[in-house]
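Retro notes (design track)

What went well: tokenization of the new backbones is finally stable.
What didn't: we kept losing track of which sequence belonged to which structure.
Fix going forward: every design gets posted as structure first, then sequence, in one message. First example under the new rule, 174 residues:
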């Protein structure tokens, strides 16, 4: 039996930049953190760390999480769309995604303690050799890249500190 559903993938700059894959199951978003993000290449296995279910509203968020202790707190909606859940067994989920970037079948399989793998099914939508996270970095809602949302001051990643430091020096010099 196929269960109609929705999915969202959010790119999140927290302690480490990662992707949050969320699939609507019942009235909650079942969620995995995928450090390297999804791939459309069936040869690529991506680590997916299960995290707690999220409320529906979480999947609608694009912006900056205030008070993020590490990273900029930026979230963009990297992909979203309809989903069809084909199988949902303990330790395995089979789902067909209809996103703007991700399409066709995907498998999520538990391989250990808090360790799952996300793999593209070999079907007509598969793109062997492709790197969709590099090729399509933008938000599907707004076209913005996560870097576009990084606040000009406060927080920020290590790499963003230099412009702030220069700005600070500029103030001192006045
Ligand atoms: Mn996250």
């Amino acid at each position: 039996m196929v269960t109609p559903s929705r999915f969202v993938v959010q790119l999140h700059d927290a302690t480490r930049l990662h992707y949050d894959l969320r699939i609507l199951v019942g009235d909650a978003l079942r969620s995995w953190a995928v450090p390297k993000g999804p791939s459309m290449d069936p040869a690529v296995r991506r680590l997916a760390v299960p995290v707690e279910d999220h409320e529906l509203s979480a999947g609608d968020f694009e912006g900056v999480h205030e008070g993020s202790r590490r990273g900029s707190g930026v979230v963009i909606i990297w992909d979203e769309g309809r989903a069809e859940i084909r199988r949902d067994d303990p330790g395995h989920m089979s789902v067909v995604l209809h996103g703007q970037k991700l399409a066709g079948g995907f498998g999520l399989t538990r391989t250990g303690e808090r360790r799952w793998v996300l793999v593209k099914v070999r079907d007509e939508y598969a793109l062997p050799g492709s790197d969709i996270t590099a090729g399509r970095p933008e938000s599907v809602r707004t076209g913005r890249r996560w870097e576009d949302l990084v606040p000009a001051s406060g927080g920020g990643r290590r790499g963003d500190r230099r412009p702030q430091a220069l700005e600070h020096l500029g103030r001192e010099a006045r």
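Added context from the reviewer: The pocket of manganese (II) ion is lined by residues 12, 14, 18, 20, 33 (CB under 6 Å).
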